């Protein structure tokens, strides 16, 4: 094991990227906190003439600010310690030390079996420090913050069971995915970047099928929506749009949280519409139909397909860059791995891991661009719902209720929205829907 080379270009990019990303996030969270202190007691002007906005009384506005502040003050030490841990694991040579320990157990990587055993154990042990660090913060958020503000219905027993189930599912998925990746790395040492991108894409599609049928039922009960006006109207919309699914289901989300949501999941024959039981209780039939109209908008406007078409070439390019980096001995030696050029081929999974560390440290700068496209799609889906249901006011009132029930901010800092919001702020969505209603 070599010492960390702090003059190495890869190490410099990792350290600089990690620190800059940390500072960006701290700054963004601070300006959003400052904006809450300044305008958290105000209602946006676009909401003032909407009767349903009366839910935002003084007590509700105070509660929203208190909830967001509690999450912010809990996030600060989590962010500081998480960044410190990330830097410490690299700067102390933890990864090359761990690799040497694993190699003593599995043998030197070379064959598929030894490489797979080494890669699997290495990745599992790499995740342990961060997982341990996150436990007290997860417990505090769940049993202190979420319970204090009336969201969490979680018991400690259920929290433990969820953790065990998540661990088992993660280990199984990791074992399968790593096996496929090692097979490609050993079988196609010069072209693995093409095949691994295809594997990751295929894995994502497979998970879209398996998640609603196998994984989600491990955590929640899904029952078909009862016959009635709501089911009839949703079914009518689905038939009108040619949207085929295995059914409309209500999930018992309330056994864990009071937060609400609705979504589509699966592809092909596994596709289903899912409503949180909390959402069904909070919204009227018109409002629920409008919310699902929004989700149908994403489907009919091909937002997911378009996103895949955009991201797939980017993924190929990124994986090619990771391949190029992994062929460079400077990547390994910079992080303290004693790897000669002739040994690179047998440890490319380490190169892929280190390249991902470097790339991950600078991905924060891409957040505004990624969220810009997402917010644009949300506006389009809102407009689709308004035209489909011919009732934009129902979506407006649904959004107001959901914002109120989930204690979401009414006036977040604009820069914070640009950088972190995948959905537009409530006032912006309402303004767009009101303009659409006025223009017919």
Question: What can be said about this structure in brief?
Answer:
The protein contains 16 helices and four strands.
Topology:
Layout: H1 9-39, H2 58-91, H3 94-106, H4 112-148, H5 156-187, H6 192-219, E1 222-224, H7 229-241, E2 248-251, E3 262-265, E4 272-276, H8 277-282, H9 285-300, H10 303-326, H11 329-334, H12 348-362, H13 367-389, H14 392-405, H15 414-420, H16 426-438
Parallel strand pairs: 2-4
Antiparallel strand pairs: 1-2, 3-4
Structural notes for this entry:
This protein is mostly helical and 440 residues long. The chain is 71% helix and 4% strand. The protein contains 16 helices and four strands. The protein has helices at 9-39, 58-91, 94-106, 112-148, 156-187, 192-219, 229-241, 277-282, 285-300, 303-326, 329-334, 348-362, 367-389, 392-405, 414-420, 426-438, and strands at residues 222-224, 248-251, 262-265, 272-276. A four-stranded mixed beta sheet has the order 1-2-4-3. Helix 4 (112-148) packs antiparallel against helix 5 (156-187), helix 7 (229-241) packs parallel to helix 9 and helix 13 packs across helix 14. The longest helix is centred in the N-terminal third of the chain and has 37 residues, at 112-148. The chain is globular. The mean pLDDT is 91.
